[in-house]
Amino acid sequence: MNVLVINCGSSSLKYQLINMSDESVLAKGLVERIGIEGSVLKHEVPGMEKVIIEKDMPDHKVALSLVIDTLVDEKHGAIKDMKEISAVGHRIVHGGEKFSASVVIDDEVIKAIEDCIELAPLHNPANLMGINACKELMPGTPMVGVFDTAFHQTMPKSSYIYPLPYELYEKYGIRKYGFHGTSHRYVSQKAADFLGKKLEDLKIITCHLGNGASLAAIDGGKSIDTSMGFTPLEGLVMGTRCGDIDPAIVTFIMEKENLDIAGVNNLLNKKSGVLGISGVSSDFRDIENAAEGNERAQLALDVFNKRVKKYIGAYAAEMGGVDVIVFTAGLGENSASNREEICKGLEFMGVKVDPEKNNIRGKDAIVSTDDSKVKVLVIPTNEELMIAKDTQELLK
């Protein structure tokens, strides 16, 4: 079974074609600048040269059509015929309270995704564009929706209700939803497998640390709390997002800087985080390179690491202990110094990182000492494979 995994952004389309018999990637690629001048497709097949195709792509249907043509191309394709694509798995950002698991996409599911647009106005419309393009270009090919929010639907009400008038939850669905669920689910399962333990027997804190970042408390395989909230703005300091701040700051800034709603939203989501503190970049690699001799760059790293550490402590308390801490995503997988700084001071909890073991990038590894009570792991995330697995499972 070959599953085409699609992740649509407002002007982008990421894809992977995965052979589920051995979970190998047959092809992957990225379409950028859809609907914008200079649109381009970057396509890769293992063992072949990367292909770059510059072509005007006014919408997602045209972009997906080019992706399919490229996948079956004689010179740089991965399959001979579209019929070799057994199913399509779509990453969908927001499923609200309607979806606690992945689902086969039908008209009812599409309507439910549309109903969640006001909760994810930047993402769900793009996800729907990908679904509708597939319906037109691949009629009859089954599709599955995998939701970023679904994994966190196991949170108890005490974790997701905000201390606001309760009728705002009833009227508008204002509550914590959490995101990165597919990643948190994948790495927690992989960690249990890697340790040879049953997921049901473990208390795990997963740290998805990248430009967007979140933690999850996973008790017995179920998410009981997570750091992102009603939107991905809550929680950790991120590349450009502020994370947790005093909400009164918002109206204060609006008044002092004469900002409207769009202006303050832009400031909190795109001009804050480590970019706002450092003044250097939203990319942690740039900040790490600048940190020596640059006080603000070092401060940005210190603030980020401290916020992650605080959440680890909080989630350990919430679960009544922790057996495993997992680092994943761009920063979590690749920055030994960040992992070390985050874990420093957690020795009282039984966390001991081995500097030599920790000196790795982007591969499954235990980086804690042999006598560490809490196992600290690096597990590269693979949301695409998780989506493909769900797709295969639902269509069996």
Automatic annotation (TrEMBL):
The record marks 180, 241 as: Transition state stabilizer. PROSITE patterns: ACETATE_KINASE_1, ACETATE_KINASE_2. Its EC number is 2.7.2.1. ATP binds at residues 14, 208-212, 283-285, 330-334. Substrate binds at residue 91. It is an enzyme of class 2 (transferase). CDD domains: ASKHA_NBD_AcK_PK. Coiled coil: none annotated. Mg(2+). Can also accept Mn(2+). GO terms for biological process: acetate metabolic process; acetyl-CoA biosynthetic process. Mg(2+) binds at residues 7, 383. It comes from the Bacteria. GO terms for molecular function: acetate kinase activity; ATP binding; magnesium ion binding. Keywords: ATP-binding, Cytoplasm, Kinase, Magnesium, Metal-binding, Nucleotide-binding, Transferase. It is found in: Cytoplasm. It catalyses: acetate + ATP = acetyl phosphate + ADP. Its cofactor is Mg(2+); Mn(2+). Homodimer. HAMAP family: Acetate_kinase. NCBIfam families: ackA. Catalyzes the formation of acetyl phosphate from acetate and ATP. Can also catalyze the reverse reaction. Belongs to the acetokinase family. This is Acetate kinase. The gene is ackA.
